[in-house]
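Dear colleague,

Thank you for sharing your sequence with our group. We've completed the structure prediction you requested, and as agreed, I am returning the results in plain text so they can be pasted directly into your records. Please verify that the sequence below matches your submission; if there's any discrepancy, let me know and we will rerun it promptly.
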Amino acid sequence: MAENQNNSSQEKTEKPTQRKLDKAKEEGKAVTSKEMFVLSSIVMMLAFFYFVASNHEQIISSWKNLFLSIETVKYGISPLVVLKDAIYKILIFIIIIGTPFLIVTILTQLFVGGITFSFKAISWKNSKFNPIEWFKRTFSIKGLVELSKSILKVLLLFGIGSFFLYNETAKLIQLSTETFEHAVKTAASFFPLLIIFLIIALLLIGILDWYWQKYSFIKSLRMNRQDLKDESKETEGSPEVKAKIRRLQYETVRKAVKQAESLENVNDASAIIVNPTHFAVALKYDVGEVGAPKVLAMGRGKIAEKIIERGKEADIFIYRHKLLARALYFTSELGQEISDKLYTAVAIALAYIYKVNKGENITEPDIELPNELIFNEDGTTNEKKSK
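Please find the predicted structure tokens below.
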């Protein structure tokens, strides 16, 4: 509890890590600028206006033919034919106008902050429809900044428009006396200056807003030192866990090195217990000697194969008993006596080996192990099994 309070009280002054940025992207969060979209939309509208002004004769003629074709229904032409032609022209018009708008919108977002998609962003959240949360968002610092920005934008654009209209009042009044086609041409001729000034103003507003939104986005993802520590624990593990892993890795390497070095002792072994190739344990015991058998060499995998190979070269008896071999491997240490829990099982095996080496023809014994000494190949215990 105290740690959480301390964490929340820390000031978030650290830049967000790449993992924090990636997580925000997965949640559908990205830098976006309304002003850049306004700019791109107005540019597209102006381009559309220019297109209409440049091709007004063809457009008017096309739509005139459409309405005239509707009249032809009275003269026996199928209304389906007329409807098909009308729908076709409308679809073409929508595609011509809509496709550039869609492309520009996508390119604008790619430029501003990239495109992200997340189901989390479109999932239902009660806070979106909570009037209290809406009030907090509206009257927060960010909301006040957005309001101030909108007011300044309106004043700037209104000032530019008023200045232009004041200087072009005479020409604007004259438009009312002209035909539609001629008025469109006239407007297209003297409006470029106004358009240029407005676009420059909107571009400046858009760039400033983009930088502000980018700054606000990064600021909202800032982290404190405790956040960085917590993230480090999540990605790399806590220092205690990492230290334990290093110790285990060191022990594994040390054990592997010792097992490899123990191959030199195989020739002195009395017997080798195998499983049949995955595990191998070389034991040393002289009849009449005080003490339990000692482990001269042991290993698994490639080392086990080398132990077996050297045992065969030295004509050492190789006894197959997978459960006994595993039990010896997982409970013994190199150079040490075997576990006292294995005295009986190993004694039975060595007695059998001794008699076979003497030339006696005897039946192989059935060796039983305690439940806690029955291991799987990964070192975990299992239910009791026999050979």
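Summary note from our side: Residues 252-373 form a domain with the name from scop fold (CATH 3.40.1690.10).

Kind regards,
the structure core
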